[in-house]
């Protein structure tokens, strides 16, 4: 069979630093057991590319990336220190546009962000049960608050008005929620009945749960649509418990009792916010993987990128933790059918964490430690 092709897109800020780590680790994995993968480096999308070409990526970028089975991206966004006049500065609206264009243009409608606290990772919550955090947040990735249609900032009067349209369709809601239940079913099969125990609205307690997030008390139109579709789809998955939280209360419970969550399904914006919070539950943004996929189709490449951004506050200093990118690389390896390599990589990241817990480490230290822990 043909080797599968990966495009490596380092991007901005700490993106190239953590991408270098991912490439080194991929090469090390490949030396141990050939992966059947090839990878190319792309200079775009990036602020550097913009400096040279006055655009974040070539006009036909979306077509070009379709030559690949999967895309691995560092991060985008380079606002830089706003005091540095020499610096090539782009507003986020320009530098991040490619990310949203890929998600939408490649029909990657589900964003999955698992949050587990690996032993040795910083545990920010004092309650010992926080060590048991093991949740999967699934974020709507194609519409909702990010649809960016029809909005406007009406300028030119003392009473300026900004309007921002949000669009939620039954089609996108239903596929998202069905996917969340399917993942809950897989997680239940993997962990076995009785190993975890969640409070559920429909059945008292269950060994797997999907929690729906809305703000239906203040945003009733899409709140009602999500609630209705959730109930319909839940009926197809009688073994999975269900639960609902308003997003504000969910934020509270992510901090107060995060071990009571299993699969969490949320809109685009709510999912974005909740997953930075969930990242802290797993030890910080430096440990939080993420992927953008179309669970129904491989017709387009999927896009793998950590939850974190370009971290301009630490960029260029070698301080970025590449573990989020390496765990993201493991998700990508699973996606392209290299499940054994993915598992070896996850175990190496875990082993490196345990053996170096509490130490202050550079990007290079972590990369070398993970490679040494590969077997
Ligand atoms: P950020 O995620 O870049 O950083 C938030 C904080 O977490 C910073 O203090 C940073 O130093 C720290 N951090 C992030 N990743 C880390 C890592 N791997 N190791 C150690 N510390 C890490 O978020 P921000 O500061 O709000 O945004 C910076 C830029 O990134 C903005 O332009 C934003 O729009 C963009 N952004 C891009 C993406 C993406 O490309 N997927 C995601 C989020 C933010
Ligand atoms: C993320 C990021 C993006 C988002 C930004 C950079 C547009 O925060 O991937 O979480 O909001 O989706
Ligand atoms: Mn985000």
Automatic annotation (TrEMBL):
Pfam families: Iso_dh. GO terms for molecular function: magnesium ion binding; NAD binding; oxidoreductase activity, acting on the CH-OH group of donors, NAD or NADP as acceptor. Residues 5-370 form the Isopropylmalate dehydrogenase-like domain. SMART domains: Iso_dh. PROSITE patterns: IDH_IMDH. The keyword Methyltransferase does not apply. Gene3D superfamilies: Isopropylmalate Dehydrogenase. Keywords: Manganese, Metal-binding, NAD, Oxidoreductase. This is Tartrate dehydrogenase/decarboxylase / D-malate dehydrogenase. It comes from Halopseudomonas aestusnigri.
């Amino acid at each position: 069979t043909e080797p599968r092709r990966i495009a490596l897109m380092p991007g901005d800020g700490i993106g190239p630093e953590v991408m270098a780590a991912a490439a080194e680790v991929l090469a090390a994995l490949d030396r141990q057991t050939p992966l059947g993968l090839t990878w190319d480096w792309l200079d775009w999308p990036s602020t550097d590319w913009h400096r040279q070409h006055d655009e974040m990526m070539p006009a036909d970028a979306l077509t070009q990336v379709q030559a690949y089975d999967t895309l691995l991206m560092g991060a985008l966004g380079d606002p830089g220190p706003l005091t540095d006049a020499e610096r090539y500065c782009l507003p986020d609206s320009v530098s991040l546009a490619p990310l949203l264009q890929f998600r939408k243009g490649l029909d990657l409608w589900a964003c999955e962000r698992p949050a587990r606290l690996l032993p040795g990772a910083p545990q920010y919550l004092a309650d010992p049960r926080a060590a048991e955090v093991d949740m999967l947040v699934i974020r709507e990735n194609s519409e909702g608050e990010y649809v960016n249609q029809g909005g406007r900032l009406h300028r030119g009067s003392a009473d300026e008005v900004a309007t921002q349209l949000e669009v939620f369709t039954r089609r996108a809601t239903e596929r998202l929620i069905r996917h969340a239940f399917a993942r809950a079913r897989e997680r239940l099969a993997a962990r076995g009945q009785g190993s975890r125990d969640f409070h559920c609205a429909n059945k008292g307690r269950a060994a797997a749960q999907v929690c729906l997030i809305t703000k239906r008390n203040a945003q009733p139109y899409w709140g009602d649509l999500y609630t209705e579709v959730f109930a319909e789809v839940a009926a197809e998955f009688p073994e999975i418990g269900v639960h609902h939280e308003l997003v504000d209360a969910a934020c509270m419970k992510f901090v107060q009792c995060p071990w009571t969550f299993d699969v969490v399904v949320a809109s685009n914006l709510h999912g974005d916010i909740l997953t930075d919070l969930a990242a802290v539950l797993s030890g910080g943004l430096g440990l939080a993987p993420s992927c953008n996929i179309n669970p129904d189709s491989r017709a387009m490449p999927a896009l793998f990128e950590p939850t974190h951004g370009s971290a301009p506050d630490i960029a260029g200093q070698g301080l970025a933790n590449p573990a989020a990118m390496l765990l993201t690389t493991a998700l990508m390896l699973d996606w392209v059918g290299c499940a054994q390599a993915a598992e070896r990589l996850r175990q190496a990241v875990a082993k490196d964490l345990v053996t170096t817990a509490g130490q202050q480490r550079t990007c290079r230290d972590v990369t070398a430690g993970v490679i040494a822990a590969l077997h």
